[in-house]
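Could you help me review a protein record that somebody else here produced? This is what I was given.
***
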Amino acid sequence: MSEKEVIKETKPRMESAIDDVRRKLTTVRTGRAAVSLLDSIMVDYYGTPTPLNQVASVHAPEPQMLTVQPWDQTQVANVEKAIRSADLGLNPSNDGKLVRIPIPPLTEERRKQLAKQVHEIAEDHRTAIRNIRRDENDKLKKLLKDKSISEDAERDGLDEVQKLTDTYISKIDELSKSKEHEIMSV
């Protein structure tokens, strides 16, 4: 294994951390209705916890309204119950065929809580990036110790891993800032 292979291995790992932070940030509620808000909800579908998007279609017909239409009409009550118990601060209602979820405007206090949640998600992923950096640096140091690479190659590899780390951490900062701006704008 060379330092180039270590660096080649680093990029996809860091990229997956960025994908994960994007996915987690989409589930944080803003003032507008977003279909991705319900991605984390699991419905009790005949005794099996199933993701909501696998048992129903979710739409945002208005900026302040989500609708969920289960494919199996007998599951309307289970879908409503799952949304209620998801602790998203939403109050769904059903008309027998469709679950309507009005998205209430966020209070200042709730906005601050959500911004704090965004900071926590971002910090968790910054830590994940740093852990990847540590793992890859350890591999480079082991290669040097085993005399598989030269000291110059190790130094170049460490510099490259650090550049990747800085790049991906700045991407996380960018994503969290834009999400926080989205939350705080009324």
About this structure: The chain has a mean pLDDT of 89. The beta strands are 42-45, 48-51, 56-62, 65-70, 93-94, 99-102.
